[in-house]
Design a protein that fits this description.
The complex is a heterodimer of chains A (112) and B (111). Chain A contains no helices and eleven strands. In chain A, a hairpin with a 6-residue loop joins strand 4 and strand 5. Chain A is mostly beta strands and 112 residues long. With 111 residues, chain B is mainly beta. Chain B is built from no helices and eleven strands. In chain B, strands 2, 4, 5, 9, 10 and 11 form a six-stranded mixed β-sheet that branches. In chain B, strands 1-3-8-7-6 form a five-stranded antiparallel β-sheet, with no helix packed on it. In chain B, strand 9 and strand 10 form a beta hairpin. Chain B is globular, with a radius of gyration of 13 Å. The model of chain B has no long low-confidence stretch (mean pLDDT 94). Classes of the chains: A mainly beta (112), B mainly beta (111). Chains A and B meet through strand 4, strand 5, strand 9 and strand 10 of A and strand 5, strand 9 and strand 10 of B.
Chain lengths: 112, 111
C-alpha cells in the first residue's frame, strides 16, 4: 500500500516564476492538506481540499492556490515566487475530515 | 484556537540516556494531541497520538507520552536513547481538522 507521494522531490526556481507541486494521497484517503515548512520551523498550514473544494485556508496570500482532482490527487501552485517561498512543502492526507493525517516526503523548493 | 509550545529547540543526550521532550498545550483541553518525528530530508512520521482514551500513550520506536491536564503538558519520553533517534520532533494539535505544530525540538545523540 503506497503512502502519500509527492513530486518532484526537489525544485529550483528563480524569483517571479511559477511552480506546481503534486501530491497523491494514501489509498482510501480523500482529503488533502498542504503545509509549508521553512528551515528550522514547524510546518504551517496552507490549505485543505475535500470533495474537490478548498475547505479552509491558512494565512497565505492568493499567490498560493490549489486544486483537487476527481481521483483525490492535488496540486499546489505558487505564482510570482519570492525568496521567502523557499521551503519544504508537505502534503498530508486523511480518510475524510480527520485529525490524524499522514504526511508525504515533501518537495524541497529553492527560490534563487 | 488551540496551540502548542515546545520548550527547548535542541536537546543533546548520550546514547542509552533518557530522552525528554517538552510540549505544553494552550488552556482548553484538546481532544487530540500528536507527536511527529522528522528524520533528515524526510517528511513527518506519526510517533503517537493522544485521544483522551488514556493519559499514558505508547508509540513507535519505544517512545511514550503522558497527558497531564494539571500541567497542560504532553511530554515525550524514551528511557534509553539510540543513535537512530537523532531527528527533529514536533508536537501538534488539531484545529478544525488542520494541524498546528510547535517549533520543533532537534535531538542529537552522542555516542
Amino acid at each position: 500500500d503506497a503512502g502519500v507521494t509527492q513530486s518532484p522531490t526537489h525544485l529550483i526556481k528563480t524569483r517571479g516564476q511559477q511552480v506546481t507541486l503534486r501530491c497523491s494521497p494514501k489509498s482510501g484517503h480523500d482529503t488533502v492538506s498542504w503545509y509549508q515548512q521553512a528551515l528550522g520551523q514547524g510546518p504551517q498550514f496552507i490549505f485543505q481540499y475535500y470533495e474537490e473544494e478548498e475547505r479552509q485556508r491558512g494565512n497565505f496570500p492568493d499567490r498560493f492556490s490549489g486544486h483537487q482532482f476527481p481521483n483525490y490527487s492535488s496540486e499546489l501552485n505558487v505564482n510570482a515566487l519570492l525568496l521567502g517561498d523557499s521551503a519544504l512543502y508537505l502534503c498530508a492526507s486523511s480518510p475524510g475530515l480527520r485529525n490524524e493525517q499522514f504526511f508525504g516526503p515533501g518537495t524541497r523548493l529553492t527560490v534563487l | 484556537a488551540q496551540s502548542v509550545t515546545q520548550l527547548g529547540s535542541h536537546v543533546s543526550v548520550s546514547e542509552g540516556a533518557l530522552v525528554l521532550l517538552r510540549c505544553n498545550y494552550s488552556s482548553s483541553v484538546p481532544p487530540y494531541l500528536f507527536w511527529y518525528v522528522q528524520y533528515p530530508n524526510q517528511g513527518l512520521q506519526l510517533l503517537l497520538k493522544y485521544t483522551s482514551a488514556a493519559t499514558l500513550v505508547k508509540g513507535i520506536n519505544g517512545f511514550e507520552a503522558e497527558f497531564k491536564k494539571s500541567e497542560t503538558s504532553f511530554h515525550l519520553t524514551k528511557p534509553s536513547a539510540h543513535m537512530s533517534d537523532a531527528a527533529e520532533y514536533f508536537c501538534a494539535v488539531p484545529n478544525d481538522y488542520k494541524l498546528s505544530f510547535g517549533a520543533g525540538t532537534t535531538v542529537t545523540v552522542r555516542a
